[in-house]
């Protein structure tokens, strides 16, 4: 009975996300969880990527959300990446590029815009400038991490649990905290 219920819930969630998606990604993906693709831009996905993980926390109360808002927005994901549950990637303009062989924990958010100005008089306008986010190869991003606009993460970097990343992360470096700061450098040399 439990397996049957699991199958029904998983398929219902996947069906809902497919019907709600407004763009079809380029490439093939392995869906262990539902993935919703929204926007007017492009999403390119390499081979061997997996979205969602069961059994894992938040499997039943979240799905992957990937959005390329406007026509000039691009989300590009390399090969052989593993994304845990509750992933959110949102490119307003410009791009978010993820390299190969990366691991993502649950509840990871990657955005390339502030989406709204801070000033009260301008807050309801969507005139913010996007800045590209680039994530290198073999990067490990732990749970509950936010990566903000303009960040470049170098190869082999590690971003610790709960980090909020506003600045670039050098390759072979561990960062942690809010805001994220360097914890250890040259971890693979």
Describe the structure.
The chain is mainly β and 189 residues long. It has a single domain (2-184), classed as UDP N-Acetylglucosamine Acyltransferase, domain 1 (3 Solenoid), CATH 2.160.10.10. Helices cover 10% and strands 30% of the residues. It has 1 helix and 19 strands. The chain has one helix at residues 2-20, and strands spanning 30-31, 35-39, 42-45, 50-51, 64-68, 74-77, 82-83, 88-91, 95-98, 103-104, 109-111, 133-135, 140-141, 146-147, 152-153, 158-159, 164-165, 174-176, 181-184. A hairpin with a 4-residue loop joins strand 18 (174-176) and strand 19 (181-184).
Question: Order of strands across the biggest sheet?
Answer: 1-4-7-10-13-16-18-19
Distance between the termini: 51 Å
Q: Which overall shape is indicated by the principal axes computed on the Cα atoms?
A: globular
CATH class identity: Mainly Beta
Largest sheet: 8 strands, mixed
SSE string, helix = H, strand = E?
A: HEEEEEEEEEEEEEEEEEEE
Which structural category fits the helices and strands?
Answer: mainly beta
CATH topology tier name? UDP N-Acetylglucosamine Acyltransferase, domain 1
| Helical run tally | 1
Count of the domains: 1
CATH architecture: 3 Solenoid
Number of strands: 19
Radius of gyration: 17 Å
The proportion of strand residues reads 25-35%
Helical content class: 10-25%
Q: Which runs of at least 5 residues are low in confidence (pLDDT < 50)?
A: none
Question: What's the rounded overall pLDDT mean?
Answer: 87
- By CATH, the superfamily comes out as Hexapeptide repeat proteins
């Amino acid at each position: 009975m439990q397996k049957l219920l699991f199958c029904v819930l998983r398929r219902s969630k996947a069906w809902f996300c497919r019907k709600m998606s407004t763009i079809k990604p380029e490439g093939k993906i392995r869906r262990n969880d539902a993935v919703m693709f929204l926007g007017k831009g492009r999403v390119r996905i390499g081979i061997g990527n997996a979205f969602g993980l069961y059994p894992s926390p938040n499997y039943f109360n979240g799905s992957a959300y990937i959005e390329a808002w406007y026509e000039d927005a691009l989300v590009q994901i390399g090969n052989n990446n593993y994304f845990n549950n509750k992933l959110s990637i949102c490119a307003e303009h410009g791009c978010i590029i993820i390299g190969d062989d990366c691991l993502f924990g649950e509840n990871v958010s990657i955005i390339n815009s502030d989406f709204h100005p801070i000033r009260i008089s301008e807050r309801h306008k969507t005139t913010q400038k996007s800045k590209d986010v680039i994530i290198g190869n073999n990067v490990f991003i732990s749970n509950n991490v936010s990566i903000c606009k303009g960040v470049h993460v170098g190869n082999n970097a590690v971003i610790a649990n709960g980090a909020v990343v506003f600045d670039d992360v050098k390759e072979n470096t561990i960062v942690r905290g809010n805001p994220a700061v360097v914890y250890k450098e040259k971890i693979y040399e």
